[in-house]
Amino acid sequence: MKVGIICIGDELINGYTKDTNSSFISYQLRIYKNLNVCNVFIVGDDYMQISKNIDYFLKNKIDYIFITGGLGPTHDDLTKKVLCQHFNCKLKVNDDHYKKLLKKFSNKNLKHIKSQAEILDISKPLLNDMGTALPMYFKYKKSSFFILPGVPSEVKSIMNNDIIPNYIKPYFHVNKNHLTILTAGIYESSLYAKLKTIIKKYNNKIKVAFLPGYSGVKIRLTAVGELVSNNDFLKFRQKIESKIKEFVYGYNDDKLNEVLGEVLIENKKTLAVAESCTGGYLSKIITDIPGSSMYYKGGIVAYDNDIK
């Protein structure tokens, strides 16, 4: 099944706001078999551009289409207008949500409140516990549409509390052949040099992505559809790890500072740090972990050369 995401908002394309919604949605869907995010489009509050992106997804038979942003009450919130025009439908007021908003904002602008309770007459409302905009779901031919507000906290709530449990989990199995290996102390290019021969042997069956970050390089392994058995995936993982085992510190959602603390406690060691340009940030990362006083003694920030 193919997935497409459209994130709408002038603030996303002019640099004022960073798009985090598409990455969150993609990350939530990554573990399900046969769900593959094919395209992510970021567009401004532009009627024609939004419409063109919807057309593109329909033309390419995208099965699940997520649209975030543009559900607010102001003149530049165009999503519902575009959808009504595109699918030849009208807006209707969801009475339950309207009553909820009236109770919450009794002294506010009633026109704006009503617009927040409007959804397409071909859709059904989704659950939004974090905001006032009413998200919606509808089906057009073979494509399922999820229309969400642009506020990241609302997107997370709607995905976690409604879309994943009610629209994804019942229909898709979790892909157990999915793993992220976390490494530190080695460059991305060096990792690839060590692993390229193994990767090429499984090129069409297992996707391998290298994701560098401040704490190291993540290696994401994902089996493609039903092409790889559990045993084959395990063998592939073991071959990868045998080449880089001295650089691996964890898996999936492990955090480097947490793993460091566990290793220090296990080996009955303590830690102190001396910092300069990091200005105490290293100490902060270490002490972010509850119980870090068991192994962390403290640190010195020596910035000026005289103090050094």
Task: Draw up the topology in text.
Layout: E1 2-8, H1 10-13, H2 21-29, E2 36-43, H3 47-59, E3 64-68, H4 79-86, E4 91-93, H5 95-104, H6 110-116, E5 118-120, E6 124-125, E7 136-140, E8 143-148, H7 152-168, E9 178-183, H8 188-201, E10 206-213, E11 216-223, H9 230-244, E12 248-251, H10 256-266, E13 271-275, H11 281-287, E14 296-301
Parallel strand pairs: 1-2, 1-3, 3-8, 13-14
Antiparallel strand pairs: 4-5, 6-7, 7-8, 9-11, 9-12, 10-11
Helix pairs in contact: 2-7, 3-4, 8-9
Summarize the structure.
Helices cover 37% and strands 25% of the residues. The protein is built from eleven helices and 14 strands.
Q: How would you characterize the overall build of this protein?
A:
By secondary structure, the chain is an alpha/beta fold. It folds into three domains: 2-168, Molybdenum Cofactor Biosythetic Enzyme, Chain A, CATH 3.40.980.10; 179-251, Alpha-Beta Plaits; 256-301, no CATH class. It contains eleven helices and 14 strands. It has a six-stranded mixed beta sheet with strand order 2-1-3-8-7-6, sandwiched between helices. The mean pLDDT is 92.
